[in-house]
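Need a sequence for this fold. Nothing fancy.
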């Protein structure tokens, strides 16, 4: 055997025996998250998943859901944590891998929030002439549901506000309302609840005006052609987090209870809203 081939064979064997992971990295897409020690957490989670999958894991972060979804559909990512809205829009091409459990259920809500000192806003009908903060045009809780709620209330979301803007992160919606940059905003209730634990001084400057019905929690999905074996391995690694101390510690840092396999029907209410609402604004 040529010396180079022998060296590569030994390197391959050493990598397998040390459990460091072999082969191409699993490319995992994320949008901004709210944890304080984001870099530290992502490093720890990446290392955890890599050891469970026996292959490297690379987190790829982008600012918007659209960027992450486009990369998935082009095969530039293997999996990603996305919102239920883009999943529903492309679920004929995306594989559902796992759904987080919050309060032991795969569900969450959208919150309408306003500044704590502004008592004039008691519901969607009180937003006439206000400045409003959305999170992301591909967010269910931060865009689709608010559009639907206003439409169902006979309110034209294109006309009611004096100004609207996107913050591209739910935490930034909370900050915009707290600092008076927006009179009100739409935010992921799980994010607001978690920030109320980690940053109570921030959320104390806002108040929850209204809560939506519960929807399927933003899922982890895979690209169309990720192999069944790879999909199953990733699902098993995520579902197994609740069963070992290291995984439990990571889940606590996310304020989650675990993951379940989930069913596409969990997101049917989002599909119904998407069908009811006029084409989304840019």
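Here you go.
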């Amino acid at each position: 055997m040529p010396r180079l081939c022998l060296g590569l064979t030994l390197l391959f064997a050493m990598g397998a025996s040390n459990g460091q992971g072999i082969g191409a990295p699993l490319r995992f897409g994320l949008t901004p998250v709210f944890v304080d020690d984001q870099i530290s957490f992502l490093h720890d989670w990446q290392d955890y998943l890599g050891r469970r999958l026996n292959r490297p894991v690379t987190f790829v972060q982008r600012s918007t859901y659209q960027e992450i979804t486009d990369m998935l559909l082009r095969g530039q990512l293997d999996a990603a944590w996305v919102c239920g809205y883009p999943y529903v829009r492309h679920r004929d091409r995306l594989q559902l891998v796992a759904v987080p459990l919050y309060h032991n259920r795969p569900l969450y809500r959208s919150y309408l929030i306003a500044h704590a000192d502004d008592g004039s806003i008691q519901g969607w009908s009180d937003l006439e002439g206000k400045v409003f903060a959305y999170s992301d045009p591909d967010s269910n809780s931060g865009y689709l549901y608010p559009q639907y709620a206003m439409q169902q209330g006979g309110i034209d979301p294109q006309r009611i506000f004096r100004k609207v803007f996107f913050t591209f992160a739910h935490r930034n919606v909370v900050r915009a309302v707290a600092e008076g940059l927006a009179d009100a905003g739409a935010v992921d209730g799980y994010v607001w609840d978690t920030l109320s634990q980690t940053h109570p001084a921030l959320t104390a400057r806002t108040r929850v005006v209204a809560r939506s019905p519960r929807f399927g929690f933003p899922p982890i999905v895979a690209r169309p052609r990720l192999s069944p074996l790879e999909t199953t391995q990733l699902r098993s690694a995520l579902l197994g987090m609740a069963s070992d101390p290291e995984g439990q510690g990571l889940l606590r840092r996310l304020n989650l209870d675990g993951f379940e396999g989930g069913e596409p029907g969990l997101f049917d209410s989002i599909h119904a809203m998407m069908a009811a609402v006029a084409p989304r604004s840019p």
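For context: The two ends are 60 Å apart (CA to CA).
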